[in-house]
Amino acid sequence: MSRPSEPAGKAAGSAGGPSRPRAILVVVVCAQMLIWLDTSVLNVAVTTLADPDRGLGATPAELEWVASAYTLMFAGTLFAGGALADRFGPRATLLAGLTLFGVASAAGAFATGPSWLVVARAFMGVGSALLMPATLSVVVQSTPPDRRTRAIAIWSASSGLGVAVGPVAGGALLSHFWWGSVFLVNVPIVALCLAAVVAVVPELKGPGRQVLDLRGLALSVLGLGGVVYGIIEFGNGQAWNGPHVLLPLLLGGALLAVFVAGQRSSPAPSLDLRLFAQPGFAAGSVVLLIVFMALAGHLFYAAFYLQGPRGLSPADAGTVMIAAAVGIVLGSQASPASSRLLSARWTVAAGILATAATYVGYLWFDGRTPILVVAALLWVQGFGMGLVGTPVTALMMSGVPSRLAGAGSAVNSVTRQVGGTLGVALAGSILSGVYRERMADVPLPGGPKGLPPDAEERARTSAEAARSLADSLRLPELAATADRAYLDAMYAATFWTAVLAFVGLGVCVVGLREREARPHHLPEGRQEPREARDDHAETA
Q: What is the DSSP letter of 524?
């Protein structure tokens, strides 16, 4: 039998003493790290996957979908994951997500072709969509109110740990084992997390939860999936007004509009839109969307900068990027004290300002910029993001009753994922467009006979292709020309990334005001259960 729903503080207090919330937090953080660990490991493995002898011989388009299938299903099913966590309880949803993630990881490890791996990655994305809202929901419900901000800080820091461990672990595995080991390593971790969840995490499901809104869930999955698909295709070089981009965006947007309209009148909504009536929820969602859009775009072109003009290997570039992960961990841990000293609003503003300054710094980078300078800026950037994530999440969730914690967590996660996808699409499009423009009228060195027409077209389209040709034909001048064009493209991308960050700063200062959380105002005839009203009273 499940326990009656209680406010988070009472639930935590009855869970077995002060040590129980700490044990629960350790378990859900380990589960949460799986998401970020797998994402960062893939960044190291793409070169191996493209190799026909050591990998699967995947084409660039297939590699893009190995990464994009995960993002597409992750973002598309997050609302459904939050609704399932609210309906069946975060513990059951967490167990289901871990199981699906583990099975899909094993299937991906033994894929015999790129298509099989794309399908496995899609199912891993669905597993992650069940995991992420459930982990935050468990943290919110099982932690006493006076320790909740610190717990959310630790939960946020798990992303930094996953990003830090992923490239190092992936490089070590690929040095000693076959490419599938980077996915198979998830299986024992999943098994340990499943055992720990069964042993430690309590059943937090309460009575009176609404039936599943299957129509709403279907609309949210199809709508978000359409929007994210269009964004991915735009980032892959498709024209914004072409059928591969415009039709999915329009169809996805229309389905989401129908979804929102239905949620407003539904007696049992999948996404309770009254969440956005909370003072910090709507503004916090916009801030997270913008800052993650800027961060993802920046990390995208920074990785190419390190492996292109700076000439680092994927493993060495991953090692340098650890500086950002360490900064995220430290910033997340410093954010509660900073919020008490400066307030959450100004802590977030300081974090956004720090990251914006690092983006501006890239305008002075070239092929000789010392790696220590790059690492220092990445650390500052990570620390700033650590200051942002925890206070915004705490403000968003502070006015959310326990019975809607899954839905609130899903919105928090969707904004991060959609923002990241938009950021990569925007940065990729700017990089590609400016690079082609710079290379269009430049005479390319190609020896006495020049480059063959197909090789010249590849060099003018991609800096990576130009460097590969330069290595094979022993033409260092061609690589230098491509590097100059890439740096110009990076300057354009980093300018717009910085602009985005400053827009996020404005939204934070104007909209992210800390006010007392107030109960939801229900339309006439829709009455909340007594437990939910008690949740509101205690939260306020």
A: T
